[in-house]
Amino acid sequence: GAFLGEPQLEMQQVFSGQRFPNVVVTMRGTVLVTWGSGHVLSRRSEDGGKTWDKPTTIARPGFQGGGTTVDETTGDILAFVEARHPPAPLTVYRSKDDGKTWQAGKVTVHPDSKGRMPSMHMNEHGITLRRGKHKGRLLRPSRYYAGKNARDKWPQHFTNAVYSDDGGKTWRTSKPFPAMGTGEATLAELADGRIYYNSRRHWASKGASPLRRWTAWSEDGGVTWQGLLFCKVLPDGPQNSNYGCMGGLVRLPVKDRDILIYSNCDSPSGRDHGTVWASFDGGKTWP
Predict the structure, then answer these.
(1) In the chain, what percentage of residues exceed pLDDT 90?
(2) How high is the mean pLDDT of the chain?
């Protein structure tokens, strides 16, 4: 609660020259940003984002895999780096000192039940589950590229998630998100222990729209997804293209309240007009 107060908008440039940000808050209250499409960097702020330390190199070369995750059990931070735009080899880096230094670790990622190996780029940050029998589980969104990042493969693409019950050493892959053509997703744990999942969509079958976001829920800690819904309120990037745009999502740490904050561009064309929406009922409505 150190940074609660009257709402205000402050803007500053933290990185330049590359792409693909993730933002997390560590167990010490440090704001940590990861970034990079040619090499992956991090920066830290210990005063709520007012000032930032110098960039730290996580991997050079490297391609941001998104899903930066704070393990709330140990305080470790995990950064996912792919060798290039995926599908590509993955390295997971771990920081044990609040994001000051990073070391490559040995991890095992298991494919899904049909042998499909997930890719990590470019999803929102991961989370540590805080409730129920899966408390302590690490969970982050991921995706399946069907072998290639190509437009003719979009109907075979889908988002999913990977989860770890041993602090990030071993990861298992969830069932697919129940909509094909999806890629780049966000998730949040709700007060009742369910997981809310919100995804970008590049392609949609006839009669479905890729211009707004698609959502689903999990009742088993992120292993399976049900209740696919088309969210008419939330835009999926510029509305003159079905290409979509990565969105941001976070649940505010208010006890027993499912206040979600979603961000994306609200624009008829072009990636501009960055806008924030709030849901006070766990993603059911966005007033």
Answers:
(1) 94
(2) 96
Q: Residues 38, 111: one domain? A: no
Decide if 44 contacts 102 (C-beta within 8 A): no
Q: Could you tell me if 76 and 115 lie in one domain? A: no
Would 2 be classed as within a structural domain? no
User: CATH no. for residue 157?
Assistant: 2.120.10.10
Question: How far apart are alpha carbons 187 and 125 in whole angstroms?
Answer: 8
194 and 251 housed in the same domain: yes
Which tokens belong to 125? 């940050």
Measure the CA–CA gap between 193 and 151, rounded to whole angstroms. 36
Amino acid in position 271: R
Token pair, residue 70, equals 């704070």
Contacts of 205 (CB under 8 A, 6+ apart): 155, 180, 181
**Helix/strand/coil for 152:** helix
Task: Flag whether 279 is in a domain.
Answer: yes
Considering just the CA atoms, what is the radius of gyration of the chain in Å? Answer: 18
Of residues 248, 255, 258, the one with CA closest to residue 279: 258
Q: How far is CA 158 from the centre of its chain?
A: 15
Instruction: Let me know whether 167 and 221 are in one domain.
Output: yes
**Cβ atoms of 262 and 277 closer than 8 Å:** yes
- Whole-number pLDDT of residue 6: 83
Q: How many CB atoms lie within 10 A of CB 62?
A: 22
Residue 33, burial from CB neighbour count under 10 angstroms (0-12, 13-18, 19+): buried
Looking at residue 34, its pLDDT comes to 98
* Mean pLDDT, residues 130-139: 97
Nearest to 164 by CA among 140, 137, 141, 145: 137
Q: Which tokens sit at 275?
A: 């806008």
